[in-house]
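FORM 12-B: Structure-to-Sequence Request
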C-alpha cells in the first residue's frame, strides 16, 4: 500500500461522522416483565408467556430468593406457569456460587426462552448469582430475544441498585455490601408492594443519595414491561417514578397508570392511558 493511499484512508476515517448511539436502559433485545408482588392477573401472565414465544417453549424458574431447598415436581405443579398451560418448566436453584458458575448448572437456561425469578428476599439471589455464569446466561436469554420476569424480590433484583438488600431485614433500603442488583434494567432502583404496604416514600432517600438512578416503585398486581428504553404499565394498579429530572405529581414522585408508556431515556410519558382509548 502506497503512502498516499494510507494518508487518504486516515483522512477518510478522521473526517467520517461519528454516530452516537442512544443508551439502552432496558434490554436491546427481549423484554423484562417486572411485577410488584401480590396476585398476578391474566394480563401479566399472558404477557410473560407470549413474549417467551408461547406455552410450548422452554421456561426456567429460579426460586432462590425463598427459603428451602426442595423445589421438585410439587413446586412446579404449583407454579403459575404450569397452571397457565406451560409444558416445559425447569427449576434452577443453588446457593453455591461455584455450582452457579458451572456449565452443567446453566444448561437449562441456555435452552430457555424465558426465565422467571420468584419472590422472597433479594439478597439471596445476589449472593448466589452475581458475577457467575448463571447471570451471564440470564442476560443471554434477553440477547436472543427472550424474556426475563420476576415478582417482588424477583422484581427488585432486576435493577442495578439493590434496595432492601440487607439480610437483617427488608426495612433497610440501603445496605452496605448488599447494593448490587442484576442490572438487567440499568441505572435503576426497583421497589415493590409500594402502595399495598405504604412504601410510597421509601425510595426518596435512595434517589437523594444516588441521583443518577431512576427509582421505580411497582404496586402489587402490576407490572412494568421494559423493552429498550420503553416502560409500559400493565395490570391492576400503578408504577411510581422517582428521579431528579422526572416532574413529580402532588406527591414527591410521578405516578404512572395502566396503559401509560414511559421513555426511560428522555424521561417523558410517550403515551398515556387516556390517549390509548
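FORM 12-B RESPONSE
SEQUENCE OUT:
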Amino acid at each position: 500500500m502506497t503512502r498516499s493511499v494510507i494518508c487518504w484512508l486516515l483522512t477518510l476515517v478522521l473526517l467520517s461522522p461519528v454516530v452516537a448511539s442512544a443508551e439502552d436502559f432496558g434490554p436491546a433485545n427481549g423484554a423484562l416483565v417486572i411485577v410488584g408482588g401480590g396476585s398476578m392477573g391474566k394480563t401479566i401472565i399472558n404477557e410473560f408467556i407470549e413474549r417467551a414465544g408461547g406455552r410450548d417453549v422452554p421456561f426456567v424458574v429460579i426460586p432462590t430468593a425463598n427459603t428451602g431447598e426442595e423445589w421438585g415436581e410439587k413446586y412446579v405443579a404449583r407454579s403459575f406457569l404450569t397452571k397457565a398451560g406451560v409444558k416445559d418448566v425447569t427449576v434452577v436453584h443453588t446457593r453455591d456460587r461455584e455450582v452457579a458458575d458451572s456449565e452443567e448448572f446453566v444448561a437449562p437456561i441456555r435452552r430457555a426462552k424465558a426465565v422467571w425469578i420468584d419472590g422472597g428476599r433479594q439478597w439471596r439471589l445476589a449472593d448466589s448469582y452475581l458475577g457467575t455464569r448463571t447471570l451471564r446466561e440470564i442476560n443471554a436469554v434477553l440477547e436472543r430475544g427472550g424474556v426475563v420476569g420476576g415478582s417482588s424480590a424477583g422484581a427488585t433484583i432486576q435493577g442495578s441498585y439493590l434496595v432492601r438488600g440487607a439480610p437483617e431485614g427488608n426495612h433497610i433500603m440501603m445496605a452496605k455490601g448488599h447494593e448490587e442488583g442484576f442490572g438487567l434494567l440499568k441505572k435503576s432502583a426497583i421497589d415493590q408492594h409500594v402502595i399495598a404496604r405504604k412504601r410510597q416514600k421509601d425510595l426518596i432517600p435512595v434517589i437523594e443519595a444516588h441521583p443518577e438512578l431512576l427509582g421505580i416503585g411497582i404496586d402489587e398486581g402490576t407490572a412494568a414491561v421494559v423493552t429498550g428504553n420503553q416502560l409500559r404499565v400493565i395490570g391492576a394498579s400503578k408504577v411510581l417514578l422517582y428521579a431528579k429530572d422526572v416532574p413529580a405529581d402532588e406527591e414527591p414522585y410521578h405516578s404512572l397508570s395502566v396503559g401509560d408508556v414511559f421513555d426511560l431515556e428522555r424521561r417523558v410519558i410517550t403515551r398515556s392511558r387516556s390517549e390509548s382509548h
